[in-house]
Amino acid sequence: MRIGVLGSGGMAEALGGRWVAAGHEVLVGGRSPERSRAVAARVGAVAGSPADAVAFGDAVLLAVPAAVAAEVLGPAPGRVVVDCTNSVVPGRFALDEPRAAVRLAERTGAHVVKAFNLCHVGVWRLPSLVFEGRPLGVPLCGDSAAALGVVRELVRSIGCVPVDGGPLERAELLEATTAFAIGLWVGGADVRSIFPPLPEASGLM
Ligand SMILES: NC(=O)c1ccc[n+]([C@@H]2O[C@H](COP(=O)([O-])OP(=O)(O)OC[C@H]3O[C@@H](n4cnc5c(N)ncnc54)[C@H](OP(=O)(O)O)[C@@H]3O)[C@@H](O)[C@H]2O)c1
């Protein structure tokens, strides 16, 4: 696949690099040509402008701050946009903007899929995404079946498992989960300890 990356920061480099390693063609289009060229050179991608990234291919990774995401993307009718942004208020670990992903889709016309926002950038840089023998699950929320299909493939291609999280309106729950987990994590809690497997007798399995 061909993936345009908007942004040239940590997430752009970590995910862009993984996709290059998985055999995809990646174009890094941050606002700084120098930083875009440097990131592209480090991961084996090509560099371009933000407009080049939007037009490049099968999907666009939006890896900029949530507050500027719609403005940076601009009108993108029908484009498959992977939205990894989190509108988390620093220090309060609450959401800055409700329904951010839905609003992004409404403002830009893109087929937005919220994905890759749950794990810290450090996770995406790890050599392996298999933990305790299980590949990392990546929750996805979106409304377009075709766009979800593209993003599921992007997830699988880096050795992860897509986890269907429902329509785009549920993306704010995914962001809220992220905000909550970051707050626990910063407070020193063991975030992984709070989701044990359901007992079989629960009636839900
Ligand atoms: N860091 C994490 O652990 C993590 C995990 C999951 C999701 N996310 C989300 O992923 C997104 C990117 O995070 P990151 O960690 O990659 O951040 P980052 O390293 O700070 O990179 C941010 C990128 O956005 C660009 N940018 C900032 N303001 C901009 C503006 N007004 N117009 C155009 N471009 C602008 C920056 O450009 P310059 O370099 O020119 O400033 C940079 O390329 C955020 O929405 C974040 O919430 C982050």
UniProtKB/TrEMBL annotation:
Protein keywords: Oxidoreductase
Residue ranges occupied by any Pyrroline-5-carboxylate reductase catalytic N-terminal domain in the UniProt entry: 2-86
Domain of life per record: Bacteria
MF annotations from Gene Ontology: oxidoreductase activity
InterPro entries on file: NAD(P)-bd_dom_sf, P5C_Rdtase_cat_N, STEAP_metalloreductase
Record-given protein name: NADP oxidoreductase
UniProt source species: Saccharothrix syringae (Nocardiopsis syringae)
